[in-house]
């Protein structure tokens, strides 16, 4: 197994280097130009999402590669600040952030909401996404885990209007259409986002 690992800082330092290192790992694995571009896009989306959530902290970025299988992993410790809490609590009376655009934006909101203390957080994790877990489960110290493949499986079991809208979001998301899976794990203040992709 080959890997690259580096810290990505709050000022954006090392993001370009992280994407370039991912690109090189893909080239060394024998990926074609289009496949390398897709891998690069996944890296950019992952780094961009975390930066938009945690612009004031640093994160550890790691790519694991074996043959043509890649795990892109981002780890960060997020302490819910007063400013983050204020933003979340002001989004709407329904607890849904209507400003969140697209699939990746809603994943970002899910992470934000999970970090809220239970006494101030929304009562459900709707955010236009289903089967995410709940802030109350998170606040008791249990892991909050989410997987795109499990999410898709849940959507296939229902004909609900919410499921249709969520499926439309997935189909519109370049990241979701490229990645084999996107998983999120939150425990305490630690957040890990993993994007998995195997090229044929």
Would you kindly provide a written description of the structure presented here, covering whatever features stand out?
This protein is α+β, with helices and mostly antiparallel strands and 200 residues long. It has 8 helices and 6 strands; from the N terminus they run E-H-H-E-E-H-H-H-E-H-H-H-E-E. The chain has helices at residues 15-28, 33-53, 82-89, 102-114, 135-139, 148-156, 161-172, 174-178, and strands at 2-8, 59-66, 69-77, 144-147, 181-187, 190-198. Strands 1-2-3-6-5-4 form a 6-stranded antiparallel beta sheet. Helix 1 (15-28) packs antiparallel against helix 2 and helix 2 runs parallel beside helix 4. Mean pLDDT is 75; it is low at 91-95 and 119-141.
Number of continuous helical runs: 8
Q: How would you state the average pLDDT, rounded?
A: 75
Please report the distance between the alpha carbons of the first and last residues: 17 Å
Main sheet, how many strands, which sense, barrel? 6 strands, antiparallel
| Anisotropy-based shape | globular
Percent in strands: 15-25%
What is the helix/strand order?
Answer: EHHEEHHHEHHHEE
Report the strand count.
Answer: 6
Structural class: alpha+beta
Low-pLDDT runs: 91-95, 119-141
**In what order do the strands lie side by side in the largest sheet?**
1-2-3-6-5-4
Radius of gyration: 17 Å
Helix content: 40-55%
């Amino acid at each position: 197994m080959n890997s690259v690992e580096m810290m990505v800082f709050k000022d954006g330092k090392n993001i370009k280097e992280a994407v370039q290192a991912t690109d090189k790992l893909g080239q060394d694995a024998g990926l074609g130009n289009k496949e390398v571009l897709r891998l690069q896009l996944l890296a950019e989306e992952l780094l961009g999402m975390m930066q938009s959530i945690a612009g004031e902290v640093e994160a550890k970025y790691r790519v694991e590669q074996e043959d043509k299988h890649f795990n892109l992993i981002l780890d960060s410790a997020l302490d819910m600040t007063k400013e983050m809490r204020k933003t979340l609590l002001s989004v709407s009376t329904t607890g849904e952030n209507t400003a969140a655009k697209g699939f990746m934006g809603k994943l970002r909101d899910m992470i934000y909401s999970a970090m809220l203390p239970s006494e101030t957080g929304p009562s459900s994790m709707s955010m236009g996404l289903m089967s995410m877990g709940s802030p109350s489960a998170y606040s008791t110290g249990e892991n909050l885990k989410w997987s795109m493949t499990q999410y898709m499986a849940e959507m296939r079991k229902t004909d609900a209007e919410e499921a249709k809208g969520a499926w439309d979001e997935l189909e519109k998301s370049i990241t979701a259409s490229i990645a084999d899976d996107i998983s999120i794990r939150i425990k305490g203040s630690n957040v890990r986002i993993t994007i998995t992709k195997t090229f044929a």
